[in-house]
């Protein structure tokens, strides 16, 4: 049993964390980003996608790379790429129950937009499980894993690192969380292969992990 009895603030990434990577939902958004890049650059699709991936790897998100190199309107980009069908997302009663069981505060911490987070959480029927969402515009469009974005989130929501747990599907986004003193949990099908010392726990089954963990108030 994983001991999380010291945790009273629960921070969750959104995409590929609160629903499984295997849904393929994010691939729709990635394709919309490639559509945007192809149109914006006028390059063949493969070349546009290569630039998109370079921006993601170098700047944390495609948007951050576009803003730095091309000064685009971030909200117009976000509105366009997030206009995808939600049909691939299915509410998971086990996830909903596990989230609502968590003692203390629950927040979503995402590099996505506020509108995207709202749509996804409502579709998954877990919007009411969270106090609030810290989204990319609240971060001044500076994405995780930038340390200043973690600091902004903590200041805005009055979060102390010690006593907080952060759940993410991206290993690199957990490094600053661990450096601050948060408990980190890597989520997804590749989590078990991680050997990073800043990853404290790993799971492919987030609802099962949460349901099986020892929480504050649980019997000793």
UniProtKB/TrEMBL annotation:
<dbReference type="InterPro" id="IPR036412">
    <property type="entry name" value="HAD-like_sf"/>
</dbReference>
<dbReference type="InterPro" id="IPR023214">
    <property type="entry name" value="HAD_sf"/>
</dbReference>
<dbReference type="Pfam" id="PF00702">
    <property type="entry name" value="Hydrolase"/>
</dbReference>
<dbReference type="InterPro" id="IPR006439">
    <property type="entry name" value="HAD-SF_hydro_IA"/>
</dbReference>
<protein>
    <submittedName>
        <fullName>Pyrimidine 5'-nucleotidase</fullName>
    </submittedName>
</protein>
<dbReference type="InterPro" id="IPR010237">
    <property type="entry name" value="Pyr-5-nucltdase"/>
</dbReference>
């Amino acid at each position: 049993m994983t001991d999380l009895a010291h945790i009273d603030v629960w921070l969750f990434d959104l995409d590929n964390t609160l629903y499984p990577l295997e849904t393929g939902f994010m691939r729709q958004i990635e394709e919309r980003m490639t559509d945007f890049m192809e149109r914006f650059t006028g390059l063949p699709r493969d070349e546009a996608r290569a630039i998109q991936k370079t921006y993601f790897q170098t700047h944390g998100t495609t948007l951050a790379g576009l803003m730095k190199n091309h000064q685009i309107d971030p909200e117009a980009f976000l509105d366009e790429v997030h206009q995808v069908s939600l049909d691939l997302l299915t509410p998971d009663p086990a996830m909903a129950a596990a989230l609502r069981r968590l003692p203390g505060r629950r927040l979503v911490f995402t590099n996505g937009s506020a509108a995207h987070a709202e749509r996804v959480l409502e579709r998954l029927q877990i919007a009411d499980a969270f106090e609030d969402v810290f989204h990319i515009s609240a971060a001044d469009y500076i994405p995780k894993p930038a340390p200043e974005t973690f600091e902004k989130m903590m200041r805005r929501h009055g979060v102390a690192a010690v006593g907080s747990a952060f759940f993410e599907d991206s290993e690199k986004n957990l490094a600053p969380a661990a450096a601050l003193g948060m408990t980190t949990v890597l989520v997804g099908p590749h989590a078990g292969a991680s050997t990073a010392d800043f990853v404290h726990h790993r799971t492919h089954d987030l609802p099962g992990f949460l349901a099986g963990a020892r929480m504050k108030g649980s019997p000793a």
